[in-house]
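re the bet — no i am not wrong, look at it urself. input seq straight from the record:
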Amino acid sequence: MAVEKISIEGFIEFSKKYPVLDVRSPGEFAHAHIPGAHSLPLFTDDERRIVGTAYKQESREKAIKIGLQYFGARMVQIVEAIEHVTGFSKKSIEGGMEKTVLVHCWRGGMRSEGIAWLLDLYGFKVLTLSGGYKAFRRWVLQQFEESYSFKVIGGYTGSGKTDVLQYLKATGETIIDLEALACHKGSAFGNLEESKQPSQELFENMLALALYEGRCKQQTIWIEDESQRIGDVNIPTKLYRSKQSMPVYFIDVPFEWRLKFITSQYGKFEKEHLINAIVRINKRLGSLETKTAINYLVEDDVEKCFAILVRYYDKYYEKGLLELCENTKRQISKVYSSDVTAETNARLILKISENILEQ
């Protein structure tokens, strides 16, 4: 079989069907990668450094010789590792599984070519990404320059906006869950139950693919009314400004329902973690309110503690929303609801959205 180089768009489409093998070093992969890719490094981080130094300071030929010493010694190990992560085996091939893989390195150069040669020799059909991960990153950044149609779900803290998004997804709507991509819920309490946040680069990679999918479907994308900064990552500026100009469907739920929802969501965490989160907003919350909220928490009156915090976030969100509307004339549609049930509120939003389109 011949190794075939393919474009970014082709690579993305094939990646939905075939395994993607990232043969860059472990450090490169850990920093950021194409979402869904398997890390199968040709060189360790130290080996990559040695080969790169030889290439720059001596010659291409010298670098290749050093690289071949590392590569040659572990060819069998590489093939077996690929069979393991892809699930390919003699039995699966005989059963009709198509033995195709996608391979890329940093620039589509010697590392991916070496692995592609080995896998081609072993009987795989190999597709390599033209330009490598570097080309993918250029493509990612270009996605943030495109135009998108967003419908934004807003609402005070505890309105169940994320649950509404997920219900909309279940009904066939296109959504992007920014908090899920960022592994953060967007407040001082946002990382209490989340895993480690991705790097900014990896967050952008995931976001770009989600945007591309929405554009390919030619559908409006439902998205939550997040701040530009979500924990330690940021929504790219042009995309954020675009989102801020789009219509908002503001879920207006009574305070007591939102308080119950927030208390049930966050009251389960250890006091120490909650106190640390409260201290992080001390300057904006104010020393008296901070002290009072912590005292309630220490006394096991979690609901009174969160009542202070919810009122604080209500004022903070309302101020930002009003300033934005004054500057951009943003369209806000109030969605009045008696509780935080995702199905009920999603249906209310869809009904209002459809009525606006008919007008």
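see?? The chain has 18 helices and twelve strands. told u. also The longest helix spans residues 302-328. so pay up
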